[in-house]
Amino acid sequence: MCSRIKGFINYFTYKLGSNAKNYGTTTFAPLRIIPQYTNIDLKNRQVTGLVKYNNKVYLTVIVDVHNRKTKVKGNLRGITKITKPFKKSHYIEMIKNEAENLIKNKIENPK
Q1: Distance, CA of 17 to CA of 2 (rounded, Å)
Q2: Nearest C-alpha neighbor of 90 from the set 52, 57, 53, 51
Q3: pTM for the whole structure
Q4: Cα–Cα distance between 20 and 3 in angstroms, integer?
Q5: Where are the domains of the chain?
Q6: pLDDT tens per residue across span 69-110
Q7: For the range 56-60, what are the long-range contacts, defined as Cβ-Cβ under 8 Å and sequence gap of 24 or more?
Q8: CB neighbours of 82 closer than 8 A, spacing ≥ 6?
C-alpha cells in the first residue's frame, strides 16, 4: 500500500515538474550486446554494423554517411530480454553515430 502511494506521489510530482525547462531524467543500463562493425569503407563513406548474439546476426545496419541514408535488415525478436531496455531504434542510432565517428576519424579497424 505504501509503495502505491509513493508511486502516485512520484507520478504527480513528475507531471507537475515536467514543464520546467531544466528537468530531465537519464536511465543508465548496461549494454549487453555491443554492435560490431564489419565493413568500413572510407572511400565510399559507408559502414556496416551488426547486432549479433550466439554467432547469429539479428540486426544489420548499413549506414551511408555521405548520402545520409540508412538501410536496416532484421529485428531484435528472440533477444529482447537480453537487450532491454534498448530497442531496435536505440541500436540503429548507436550504429549511425558510431559510423559518423569512424568515417570522420578515418578509422578502418575499430577495437
Answers
A1: 22
A2: 51
A3: 0.73
A4: 26
A5: 27-104
A6: 999 999 999 999 998 888 999 999 999 999 999 999 999 988
A7: 59/88, 59/91, 59/92
A8: 32, 33, 53
